[in-house]
Specification:
Distance between the termini: 58 Å
CATH topology: Double Stranded RNA Binding Domain
CATH superfamily: Lipoprotein like domain
Number of domains: 1
Helix content: 40-55%
Radius of gyration: 24 Å
Protein name: LPS-assembly lipoprotein
Low-confidence stretches: none
Strand content: 25-35%
Order of helices and strands: HHEHEEEH
Organism: Labrys okinawensis
InterPro entries: LPS_assembly_LptE (IPR007485)
Shape: flat
Mean pLDDT: 84
Structural class: alpha+beta
CATH class: Alpha Beta
GO biological process, one term: Gram-negative-bacterium-type cell outer membrane assembly
């Protein structure tokens, strides 16, 4: 087989592989893009979610990060939805030192129940629960262990806020 036949054959296979991408190129629209019809986009609808206050420190971390993720740091528009969060945190020892029976690796488990409500009617639009885990090193130094646990809780709160935002965006995209 000559070199020109191989080149033309490769070009034809490349064009054939590229054909579906070209044909479907106009069908794709980013989820957070503004629609062309003037209706509020998903980004604006996410920003219009008002989050109820929470009582505990970890819940406040989730709330603060979620609030920033929903609005992007901008001023929030008038609320169209209300979000109720209930967050709990627990810790388990995953690895224990056999010589002195002290935990070396602990795991923080963060659980958040959240409910999206219509503020006008109080109707439940979405009810869900998320879990996230973060491990941290612990040892004989008590205050270092307390700080490591707090850092693990903060990291888990970041992940939890991202998960909740993604779930809310998915729900709002499917329920205009």
């Amino acid at each position: 087989m000559s070199s020109s036949n191989q080149t033309s054959r490769r070009s034809a296979l490349f064009a054939l592989a590229l054909l579906p991408a070209v044909m479907l190129g106009g069908c794709f629209r980013p989820m957070l893009a503004d629609p062309g019809d003037g209706s509020p986009g998903l980004k604006n609808r996410l920003a219009a979610i008002a989050i109820d206050p929470v009582d505990d420190r970890v819940g406040q971390q989730v709330r603060n990060r979620l609030s920033f993720n929903l609005t992007g740091g901008a001023e929030a528009p008038p609320p169209r939805y209300r979000l109720v969060l209930a967050t709990s945190s627990s810790s388990d020892s995953a690895l224990v030192d056999a010589l002195n029976a002290t935990p070396q690796i602990d795991t923080v488990t963060l659980t958040t129940d959240y409910t999206l409500l219509d503020p006008a009617t109080g109707k439940i639009l979405l009810k869900a629960k998320n879990f996230t885990r973060k491990s941290y090193n612990s040892g004989l130094q008590r205050f270092a262990t307390v700080r490591a646990r707090r850092d693990a809780e903060n990291d888990a709160a970041d992940v939890m806020a991202d998960q909740i935002r993604l779930r809310l965006a998915t729900w709002l995209a499917n329920h205009p």
